[in-house]
Amino acid sequence: MQLFVNPEMNARRLNRRRFLFFSAVFALTSIATWFMADLLWRDGINRLQVGLLVLFVILFGHIAVGFCSALVGFYVVNRGGDSCRLKAEPVAGEEPVLASTAIVIPVYNEDVSRVFEGVRVIYRSLEATGRLEHFDFFILSDSDRPNQWIEEEVAWAELCKQVNGFGTIFYRKRRQAINKKAGNVADFLRRWGKNYRYMVVLDADSIMTGASLVRLVSLMEKNPQVGIIQTAPRLVFGETLYARLQAFANRLYSPLFLAGINYWQQQDGNYWGHNAIIRVQPFMDHCALPTLPGSEPFGGRILSHDFVEAALMRRAGWGVWLAADVGGSYEETPPTLIDSAKRDRRWCQGNMQHTWLLTARGFRPANRFHLLMGIMGYASSPLWLLFLILGMVEAVNDAALDRMGMFRSPDTTSFFGYRAEVPESLTLFVFTMLLLFLPKIVSVVVALGRPEEIVRFGGRMRLVGSALLEAAVSALLAPINMMFNSKFVVYTVFGQGVTWASQNRRAEEDGTDWREAIITHGPHMVVGLVWGISSYVLVPVYFWWLSPVLVGLILSIPISIFLSKAGLGRAARRAGLFLTPEETEPAPELQSLNRHLEECYRKLPPFEPLRGDYGIMQAVLDPYINAMHVALLRQRRPSEESREWFLRLRERLLREGPAGFSVKEKMALLLDADSMIWLHRELWSCPAGSLAEWWRLAMRQYNVLTATPTTALYR
Question: What is the fold, at CATH topology level, of the domain defined by 88-204?
């Protein structure tokens, strides 16, 4: 590989880029602020108006950052790319230089078929490159369900047998899930980090091609001063209408934003927690997460670790780069609006914790800005809501003064709730809409200017139609997400932490049911109705200005249900709407994964009466699974008191069956090697009359189970 890179750009040139970028943000915000101040303060100034102006400046500044990123990205893309970025071009006859690399996949109660079929696809793709010997795979489980644990072990063993992956694909189950994903990766590094120069961190729904992995390692080898290279994953496998909308928007709009961000951040890039390669030794030396002051949710262990790890890596002098042009990186998106909100609840708490770190010693200004933007991604929602509420109060005051004839400027007109001349109000409105929608328009124009892109998006008319529909739906979703995020921020501020839950990644055929939608979105609809009626009665003109927000809130229940339908998503695909290049020209790895998963999901789990405790049944009953499970356990010598407790637990399990056991008791038995060996031996040697009916049923079915391929027993 021949390298064309200038990772250490001239400081003066980089500062000039950043000065121009942030000057543009400042200029746009200043112009809008001048218009807003002129509208508010024509007839004097009060505290309410000062509050409105402050909120407007913060919110508009946030919008201006996104607009300027897209604007700069258009400039970069239009001139053929940025010469100052990490990139590599193949040289004939030269093999890329690689080094030992661990592919790390933390999982927590994930769909086992999806995880291990994904590993299979990546393994085969690397095998096809001829460079598999440089890579090892680690599935790091924090699953806390007995069935899930045993299912993962069986799937690991079967996968290793099928691809000859023993010694290359490893599985580890932690005894204690401390500090969630960050703690899982840290535990891996303490145990095995010294064996590897790099690690590639993937999520349970991530896919990376062998070629992209080889390219990332080669880039690291060519750039010894770089600590992290982050790829830009594409969203794939969206079945529902919501998931397809997200994938289309990600694919069409992100190239401009990514190019713009990379233009000014350069080696001060960010880390998104997955689909990235990390230099192991500096990560171990410098990226240990601090414990924040106080208790959760604001204090304690850091929930969103990735932004902080990027800042710590930069503080130590290592580069963090965004490699948006490295293809072959994919992930999935939540299938429904409610599933997306559940994920955002966790992200919100983690990002709000970053307020502690904005003034951390030694952090680079760019990293502080990344942390601030992460906070604003959620804090902007309650600020927007507060701005709308204060705007209504101001409009009510203005209406009362109008009726009393107390304005000093009788030639002014109430427009959008404010006393102003129509042209000036309209100018500010158009200016704001321009910043919101122009990046999308430019993205469409850029795609239309590339014939190959038009074909990959389904054609000119389908691309334009999909973009218009996406813009309309995103306008309806904006107030719903505002209410979600406002609630999440308030919960965090008032000390309500979030529990660690597994993420739903599969679409249900019927989508979100009405009960869940009503419970989740009912408050949104009530707020929309009350707010709309109140504004129409008090200030009719403000009602019309607020109507785009009210429509999304009032219709939130049917919108959520409509977007969650997998059938509608497939119908949109047949109609050529929201197509992406990953669908029209899928990579072989994506085709292979889709084919394998279809085969897995067609197989039904046998023996439904035993399914509730199927994992513990297999681990105790089946000799092969029992021996494998015991071999994977870390041997520990329990105390005398613990031995007595385990003995009582074992005897009770055989005598009564697992129905009366808590999850904690089942997990304790599965974690104790002596108990698992004892249970297996006693189960096969005890008279049938001394066993619970549940175990007798399990043993009668055993011959059928052993006659069925193990991989068919699991979804």
Answer: Rossmann fold (3.40.50)
